[in-house]
Amino acid sequence: MTLSPLDDYPVHQIPDVMRHVATSDRNFYDRYYFNCHSCSDELMLIVGLGQYPNLGVTDAFALVRYGPLHRVVRASRELGDDRMDTTVGPLRVEVLKGLRRLRVTCEPNDHGLSFDLTWEGAIPAQLEPPHFIRAQERVVFDSRRLAQTGRWTGSITVDDTTLPVTPDRWWGSRDRSWGIRPVGEGEPPGIQAKNPASFYWLYAPMQFEDHAILCIVQEDARGRRILEEALRVWPDDREPEYLGRPDYRPAYAPGTRDVTEAVISFAPPGGKPFDVHVAPLLPVHLMVGSGYGLEPDWRHGMYQGPEPKVQGVTYDLRRVEDAARMWGMVDAVARFEYDGGVGHGLFEYWALGAHPAFPEDITES
C-alpha cells in the first residue's frame, strides 16, 4: 500500500489510501470532458482525460474538427501512485479554482494540434441525476456527473494556423464524471451477449447570454426513460428551475440517423410550456480516434504498455473513405432558439439499434 500527496488532504471516504477506490470493479473511472467552439461552424475542440484506478491506466485525447479536418492527439501511460498528476503526454488539466476555473493544455507535438486554454464557468456547476443501469444481473453503469457551461480564453493552433480564443465568442460546456461504465479491453460477454445493442441518447447543455438550459434524455429499446434532466440555470445564486419531463423530437436525413434539426419541448410545473428549436451547425464524431470504443487497439483505460505512448490520427472528410469512418456518437455545435432568444452549445446525440422512433429499414448512422 502506497501513500500519495492526496492523502495529506482531509478528503478520505473509505479506510484506505486515496489512490484506491471503494469498489474493485475493473470499470471504475474518473474523467474530465470539455468542448470549445466559436458559436459557429468554424471549429470544435473536444478534450477528455480519464483515470482508471483498478486498471492502473490514465489516458487523454484532444479532438478538433476544423473545416474538413478531423484530427486527434491521444496519449496513455501507467497511472502510478499520484492521482493528482493529471499530465498525460502533451495533455494536461489543471484545477485553478474548483468548480469555477480550469486550465487545459496540449503542448506542441508532432501531430499538428496544440492549445493553451483557460475555462471560466458561466453558471454554478450542477450535479446531474445518478446514471444506473443493471443488465443481466450485472451493474453496467453506476456513475455521477457534474455539468457546467462556460467560456474560454487562450489560443488553439492547428498546423500553422493559430486562432485567438476570447470569451466573447468562444463558449463551451464541460462535465466531470466518475463511477462505473465499460472501459478498457473487451471482456468475454457471457450472458451479456443477450443484451440488445441499443442506445438512444440526447445531451444538450445550451448556453444563452444570461442563463443556461441543461437537458438529458436516454431511452431503452422500448422507449422507456432510463435517465432525464431538464433545468434552467442562472449565473447567480437563484435556485435552478425544474423544467419538467423533456420531449425530444429529432428530424433525420433520409435513410440515416443523422439529425438535421430537432425540437425539445419543456413544460415547467406551474409555468409556461415552451419549445427550443435546435439547428446543428458542425457535427463531430466523438468516438472516432478518441478511445470511446471504435478502435480495437485504443480504448479508454486500455493498457498501452510500460512506456508512455502518444499518437496522432488525422482524417480528411473530403475523402470518401475517411468520411465513411464517421460513425457513432455525434457531438455537434448547435444553435438553440426559444422565445426570441438565441443560444449555442453542445447537441450530443446517438440513436443506435432498436427504438420505437425507427422503422427497421433505417440504416444506422
How would you sum up this structure, described in words?
By secondary structure, the protein is mainly β. It has one helix and 23 strands. The protein has one helix spanning 320-323; strands at residues 28-37, 43-52, 57-66, 69-78, 87-88, 91-97, 101-106, 113-121, 126-127, 131-135, 138-158, 161-165, 171-180, 199-207, 212-219, 225-233, 241-242, 247-252, 259-266, 274-285, 309-316, 330-338, 341-352. Strands 1, 2, 3, 4, 5, 6, 7, 8, 9, 10, 11, 12, 13 and 21 form a 14-stranded antiparallel beta sheet that branches. Strand 10 and strand 11 (138-158) form a beta hairpin. The longest helix has 4 residues, at 320-323.
Q: Could you outline the blueprint of secondary structure elements for this entry?
A:
Layout: E1 28-37, E2 43-52, E3 57-66, E4 69-78, E5 87-88, E6 91-97, E7 101-106, E8 113-121, E9 126-127, E10 131-135, E11 138-158, E12 161-165, E13 171-180, E14 199-207, E15 212-219, E16 225-233, E17 241-242, E18 247-252, E19 259-266, E20 274-285, E21 309-316, H1 320-323, E22 330-338, E23 341-352
Antiparallel strand pairs: 1-2, 1-13, 2-3, 3-4, 4-21, 5-6, 6-7, 7-8, 8-11, 9-11, 10-11, 11-12, 11-13, 14-15, 14-23, 15-16, 16-17, 18-19, 19-20, 20-22, 22-23
| Uncertain ranges | none
Multimeric status of the protein = single chain
Mean pLDDT: 96
Rg from Cα = 20 Å
Percentage of β-strand residues: over 45%
The largest β sheet comes out as:
14 strands, antiparallel
The helix count comes to 1
What order do the SSEs take from the amino end to the carboxyl end, as H and E?
A: EEEEEEEEEEEEEEEEEEEEEHEE
Helix content: under 10%
**Shape verdict:** globular
Structural class: mainly beta
According to DSSP, the number of beta strands is 23
Distance between the termini: 47 Å
